Amino acid sequence: MNIVGEIKKVGANLVTNGSFKVWQRGGSVVLSYGETKKTGADRFSARSWGAGAFTVSNSVVDGDDAYKVLVDASLGGLIGGSYVGPLMYAFEGQELYGKNGKKIKIKIKIKTNFDGVLSLSLKNSASDRSYLTELSVRANVIEEKELKIVLESDTTLNNDSLKGVMLVIGGIAKGSYESAVKDEWVAGTYYSVSGATNWGVVIGNSIEVIDIAVGSDDITDFIKKTYSEELLLCQRYYNVIGKEAHGTWKSGSTVGLGWSYPVEMRAAPTIALATTTPVIGRLDNPDDTGVGSTILTSKSGVKGGSAFIDGMSSGAGNGNGANSETDVLFTASAEL
Amino acid sequence: MEESNIIINSVKKSKYGYVINESLHVPNDSKNSDYQAVQKWIDAGNTPADQHTPEEAAQIESDKIKEAAKAELLKVDLESIRSIREYIAAQPDAPKILKDKEAAAVLEREKLK
């Protein structure tokens, strides 16, 4: 009698937000021709380099969050162009460091509304070596796929927080980013296997990725992180700084801000005034109408920063420039 | 070579790094991907604009001169007030309030010695 049963080896998923729980940028992003955007889902980006457009949005499949890519009916199918990367993930070098020449496991839970073959590609940080493989899908069936890929032995995997290997799922490529060579590393930058389904040409086609995990070859179960754990990991790359950035009136229409991050960011982040709701430059006094419009100076560090914001108009009950305590919404990005 | 993740329309130098497209404030950190994009943009033969236009720089310089002049004027005015008080307080028919203020000032200055 087997009293031990199956012993599963559990391990960490090297993909942060692989279950698509965290969407700090909002639940829906439209990508038009020629655009590359960090998508609503933290740590993921998408690229549309062909005619037409698609929407990336948060959806729910069987009760789980999913990353949905939809060929946008209002903007037309993704016809022609160089390539489309609807779901891209960049690892830090240190996350795969030491795995040169070793086998990694990729587990993916995916649902499409069409039958076909999708491309899955890896490329190195220099974008001069690529690996292509295929993923068959059936319409409206949740597929759970497991792939094993040997990382190149001579690929330099940097042991730092700089961009390492890039993973792309569902890439459509025409021209220079397409290759017929699959299941081996080759020189060049490729996103799509020749002959893969050109799903982007059909308006209404969609891909929903429910879960993606990457780790050592021998892992049988990946550890599921909580929302809070995922959020902190995501905030290492991207932060929305709202009420915490409490401003102090400096002079005229200028406020000064100082802030700290919930986690130390991977690099000193780029700072921008947000253009999404809640409205920028929201003032404490409900009579106030001012909005922040210009960052005069921005001193950005991995633990926090400071800035002067201009363009804060005076409110009805405050005749001396901007309110002395002013909330301004920032975004701080230290993305790869 | 793959396209950069950011479409750069303009780059301006700033005190702490660069400002891309008049909206993104990029720090001097080689690990920041926007900073890397600016370096590629420069390598491609582009040149970042100065932090301020000549007109803005002239205005800033003018403002600095005015601020310095205001500070100097304030100092002159304060010193003039003291001189006037000291002169009047030395007169035999000086108002008592000014004599008292001068006596108080002498006492306070003693503490500074």
Structure description:
- The complex is a heterodimer of chains A (336) and B (113).
- With 336 residues, chain A is an all-beta fold.
- Helix content of chain A is 3%, strand content 44%.
- In chain A, strands 3, 4, 7, 9, 10, 12, 13 and 15 form an eight-stranded antiparallel β-sheet that branches.
- Chain B has a three-stranded antiparallel β-sheet with strand order 1-2-3, covered by helices on one side.
- In chain B, helix 2 crosses helix 3.
- At the A-B interface, strand 22 and strand 23 of A face strand 2, strand 3 and helix 1 of B.
TL;DR?
The complex is a heterodimer of chains A (336) and B (113). Chain A is mainly beta. Chain A has 1 helix and 26 strands.
Record the SSE blueprint.
The complex is a heterodimer of chains A (336) and B (113).
Chain A: E1 10-11, E2 28-31, E3 35-38, E4 44-48, E5 54-61, E6 64-71, E7 83-92, E8 103-112, E9 116-123, E10 129-137, E11 143-150, E12 163-169, E13 172-173, E14 178-179, E15 185-187, E16 192-193, E17 206-216, E18 221-222, H1 227-235, E19 238-241, E20 246-251, E21 254-260, E22 270-273, E23 294-300, E24 304-310, E25 325-327, E26 330-333
Parallel strand pairs in A: 1-18, 14-16
Antiparallel strand pairs in A: 2-5, 3-4, 4-7, 5-6, 6-17, 7-12, 7-13, 8-11, 8-17, 9-10, 9-12, 10-15, 19-26, 20-21, 20-25, 21-24, 22-26, 23-24
Chain B: E1 11-14, E2 17-20, E3 24-27, H1 33-43, H2 54-89, H3 96-111
Antiparallel strand pairs in B: 1-2, 2-3
Helix pairs in contact in B: 2-3
